[in-house]
Design a protein that fits this description.
The chain is α/β, with parallel strands linked by helices and 544 residues long. The chain folds into 2 domains: 260 residues, Nitrilase/N-carbamoyl-D-aminoacid amidohydrolase, CATH 3.60.110; 208 residues, 3-Layer(aba) Sandwich (Rossmann fold), CATH 3.40.50.620. Helices cover 37% and strands 19% of the residues. The strands form 4 sheets. Strands 5-4-3-2-1-14-15 form a 7-stranded mixed beta sheet, covered by helices on one side. A 6-stranded mixed beta sheet has the order 6-7-8-9-12-13, covered by helices on one side. Helix 7 links the parallel strand 17 and strand 18. Helix 5 packs across helix 6, helix 5 crosses helix 12 and helix 6 runs parallel beside helix 7. The radius of gyration is 26 Å and the shape is elongated.
Length: 544
């Protein structure tokens, strides 16, 4: 009888730094895989450390925990083989490694050879690169081991093939961004076209600060055909079985059903990434819930919907803080959304605080015209209320600003920018509208009038965003050209935009870097988000 090899893909949510807890999760999942008939269970990149562990890697206590965890995993490999990612400390350096344990012994160890150092990745700060291919015989099959970026370059797969690999096992911590899954599958097909080997691709799932890992682990056969795809944004334990055909070639079939989870639409994938990011940021920090300001506008409405879906209504509090400029429809729509979602809802007017602040500053402001200063005071009054609730209850404050506002500084420092986490920080205003429509298609929780009305900060009479900014249909594409594509003014103008408008927008982006440096973290969903992959100087003499 031909030997078969059943491999379980353990798409798992790990917590950075919780080495003991992560090791326990590895052992628990391996036990589940063994009970389901697996011969080998494969875990994501740096599973024991969590990804990215950043400067935790330099702590001696962290190293000791990793070493102890590896011993626990080794001892648990008697019944089922385990391929696990972890930091390896050797020769005075650190490697991003993957070790295969079986029968209670270490069988092979691969050191990641291609270290990404772009966008959100800075692995060359921490790791040394491996230089060797790793191929191990297991259950009658030659397994080549790669770690994440290794599969995005041609050479590691070729070296594994040259050393006799019949199956490639790739462990990953590949963060979500729009269209990322299609890019992953396309790259793996390129490798398969080059080496004609089946590929098992296991990805991390879960939120970690600004990053969200969306899972969607998959398996392709030697023809580049998809055999299995795990679902997005949830943990999964999916399995495939390898065998041999009459000519001795390697075959693969899915064991788990349904075998191929559907690819999500663009807007669905963003929404689910935001929900996962909020759920894990709140949960992994053990906050009892969240509080946010609900203005009656679309940004706070979408943020409330995301928070409710991520945490449940019982862990969400919305606060309407009307001023003299707040329209009746804003009050009504905010109350209606809170009712529909079943969250705790408070109304706390700011008029008294606002008036008292203006009175206190009357002498300082004497002879000066009313301007944005008074608008910002209103926003900061609201911050005092929200932070007071946060401090008293332990609930984390969610901010509600979007990427378009963050880009051009249309937000108040120490006002509406204050908070612990910014769910839609990387969503442009146009994407916010798309997400609101998507969420309402699942069940109408956002009053339609909130979506239809012109956006306004409601900080002065009859205020509209368009008073200060170009229409979002113009602003957002210009911002994408500059922020995500790094285009110069001439290149953006060549795409049909007015030069004066482009120049004004780019000047606003550069002038407001100091604000963004003080903004809370938020979920990254685009090719380039403000945060860890945006590193512009605050003080700069560069001019367009």
């Amino acid at each position: 009888m031909t030997n078969t090899l059943r491999i379980a893909l353990a798409q798992t949510n790990f917590l950075v730094g919780d080495v003991d807890g992560n090791a326990a999760r590895v052992i628990e999942r391996a036990t589940q895989a063994q009970a389901a008939g697996a011969n080998l269970v494969v875990f994501p990149e740096l599973a024991l450390a969590g990804y990215p562990p950043e400067d935790l890697l330099f702590h001696r206590g962290f190293r000791a925990k990793v070493d102890a965890a590896l011993e626990r995993v080794r001892a648990a490999s008697d019944a089922v083989a385990i391929l696990v990612g972890h930091p390896e400390y050797a020769g005075g350096g650190i490697f991003n490694a993957a070790t295969l344990y079986a029968h209670g012994r270490e069988q092979a160890r691969h050191r990641k050879s291609c270290l990404p150092n772009y966008r959100v990745f800075d692995e060359k700060r921490y790791f040394r690169a491996g230089t060797q291919a790793t191929v191990i015989e297991h259950q009658g099959y030659a397994l080549g081991v790669l770690v994440c970026e290794d599969v995005w370059e041609a050479e590691p797969a070729q070296l594994a093939k040259a050393q006799g690999a019949e199956i490639l096992l790739v462990i990953n911590a590949s963060p979500y961004e729009r269209h990322k899954q299609a890019a992953r599958e396309a790259v793996v097909r390129e490798r398969i076209a080059d080496v004609q080997l089946p590929v098992v691709y296991v990805n991390l799932v879960g939120g970690q600060d600004e990053l969200v890992f969306d899972g969607q682990s998959f398996v392709m056969n030697a023809a580049g055909e998809l055999v299995l795809r795990a679902p997005a944004c949830v943990e999964a334990l999916a399995a495939v079985e390898f065998g041999r055909d009459a000519a001795g070639g390697v075959t693969v079939r899915a064991v788990s059903q349904p075998a191929i989870a559907a690819l999500q639409s663009d807007v669905q994938s963003i929404y689910e990434a935001l929900v996962l990011g909020v759920r894990d940021y709140v949960g992994k920090h053990a906050f009892p819930g969240v509080v946010l300001g609900l203005s009656g506008g679309i940004d706070s409405a979408l943020t409330l919907a995301i928070a409710g879906d991520a945490l449940g209504a019982d862990k969400v509090q919305a606060v309407m803080m009307p001023s003299r400029y707040t329209a009746d429809m804003s009050r009504d729509d905010a109350a209606e959304q809170a009712r529909r979602m079943g969250v705790r809802y408070s109304v706390i007017p700011i008029e008294g605080m606002f008036g008292a602040t203006l009175a206190a500053l009357e002498g300082e402001f004497a002879g000066r015209a009313v301007d944005a200063t008074e608008e910002n005071i209103q926003s900061r009054c609201r911050m005092l209320i929200l932070m007071g609730i946060s401090n008293k209850t332990g609930k984390m404050l969610l901010t509600t600003g979007n990427k378009s506002e963050m880009a051009v500084g249309y937000a108040t420092l120490y006002g509406d920018m204050a908070g612990g986490f910014a769910p839609i920080k990387d969503c442009s205003k146009l994407v916010v509208y798309q997400l609101a429509a998507y969420r309402n298609a699942l069940g109408e929780v956002i009053p339609q009038r909130v979506i239809d009305r012109p956006p306004s900060a409601e900080l002065r009479p009859d205020q509209k965003d368009s008073d200060s900014l170009p229409p979002y249909e113009i602003l957002d594409p210009i911002l994408e050209c500059f922020i995500e594509d790094d285009l110069a003014v001439d290149e953006i103008v060549a795409r049909g935009f007015d030069r004066a408008v482009v120049g004004r927008v780019l000047d606003l982006v550069k002038r407001n870097e100091y604000k963004r440096r003080q903004a809370p973290p938020g979920v990254r969903v685009s090719r380039r988000a403000f945060g860890r992959d945006w590193r512009y100087p605050i003080t700069s003499g560069y001019r367009r």
